[in-house]
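debug: dumping io for the single-chain case to check the tokenizer round-trip. Nothing else runs in this session.
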Amino acid sequence: MSQWYYNESGQQRGPVTVEEIKSLLESRRIHPDTLVWTEGMPDWKAASAIGEFQLSPYAPPASDPTAAIDWSGYEPSGPQARPWVRYWARTFDFLLFCLILGGGIVAVWPKVAQMNDTFFGAILLLGYNFVEPFLLSTVGSTPFKALLCVRVRNIDSTKPSYMKALRRTFAVWIRGQGLGIPILALITGITSYSRLSNDGVTSWDRDGGFTVSHQNVGWWRWLILVGSFAGFIGLMAFGSEA
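debug: decoded output
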């Protein structure tokens, strides 16, 4: 029995059987233009170009769940294992969250400013873990993931549910950020970086059934990121003098 592979958001999936490819096509979990390959083929081809995968004109219509699949023309570009891009996107999302929520809390309850910075930061990080899943499950991204063209989806290209995104975020918090504990975070960060660089996928995305894809980041996006960093530094300096 031949074993097939297919390209999903820039990542290779498989091996799967002919019947499984047909099932994915019929349910529209993958598109007819999806690239497929099996041993003996000189190059990858669109599934629609393979005779075995031609859909019958009498095939039943797709079921309702497939209506949520995003065929909006998104196409990954460039390298798909970009640990530093993912790191900066998440870091700046968290800093923005701290600026909005942390600043609001301090304005309402000034005594919080006297709290240990590390402890207060750990509390904010825990709080952010409930905000990111909400954004991923509703609008489909976070501010800096959108800026740096990072896309988190289920394998079938749909947005994750809140609970599924929540499990992913907590897995990142534990396995990637070491619960925000400095020394532990260094160890988990290095481990996650190595795994993503070598395997092309993190443990939480592999176990959770997620696809993280990238598009090339234009220079103006990096310029906005640098400007945001300068803004955060300026606000911190202003706050320390106040």
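debug: round-trip ok. The longest strand covers residues 11-16.
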